[in-house]
Design goal:
There is one protein chain. By secondary structure, this protein is mainly beta. Helix content is about 15%, strand content about 40%. It has helices at about 65-80, 140-150, and strands at about 25-30, 35-45, 55, 60, 80-95, 100-115, 120-130. The strands form two sheets. The chain has a four-stranded mixed sheet with strand order 4-1-6-5, with helices on both faces. The longest helix has 13 residues, at about 65-80. The protein is globular and about 50 Å long. The protein starts with about 20 loop residues before the first strand and ends with a helix.
Length: about 150
């Protein structure tokens, strides 16, 4: 005799065994200049996760926005630069206390604009692609940086 009672596990349990965190999408971009150097931004001391680490430009997609529009907008807000996206460069994943974050990483080029950082970041650097893996990046981008640095 089978029972379908309260003993079954449900996805809403709070003991961590069953509950799956929701995924949020964050889009990032390897922005290249005319010498094929990659733009990195250093997170400000007050920026919560990974403060003081080097990061790729980009961020979350707002409701009603396509991811490519969101990425171009984020880069403009964070750097003052207007970019064109070229292709998908890779992906990454991280976990925060309340969610999983899936990163899609694009490659893009600077079209125009003057570098001007927002308060989110306190420094920027242009780094050769081959040097990307030796920078103190946010941990979730290290394996991507190694793959990117070693591509032909």
């Amino acid at each position: 005799m089978s029972h379908h009672g309260s003993s079954g596990s449900s996805p809403s349990r709070e003991d961590g065994q069953v509950t799956r965190k929701n995924f949020a999408l964050s889009v990032k971009v390897v922005v290249l200049d005319d010498r094929n150097r990659c733009l990195l931004l250093r997170r400000s001391p007050g920026s919560g996760f990974n403060a003081g680490k080097w990061d790729l430009p980009g961020g979350k997609v707002d409701a009603g926005e396509t991811f490519d529009e969101a990425l171009v907008r984020e880069v403009e807000e964070e750097t003052g630069l207007h970019i064109a996206l070229e292709r998908v460069a890779g992906s990454a994943q991280s976990e925060t206390p309340d969610r999983m974050v899936a990163y899609m990483i694009m490659r893009g080029r600077v079209l125009s604009g003057e570098m001007k950082l927002s308060s989110e970041h306190d420094q920027f650097a242009w780094v050769a692609g081959t040097e990307l893996a030796s920078v103190d990046l946010c941990p979730q981008f290290r394996s991507f940086a190694e793959a990117y640095a070693n591509q032909p």
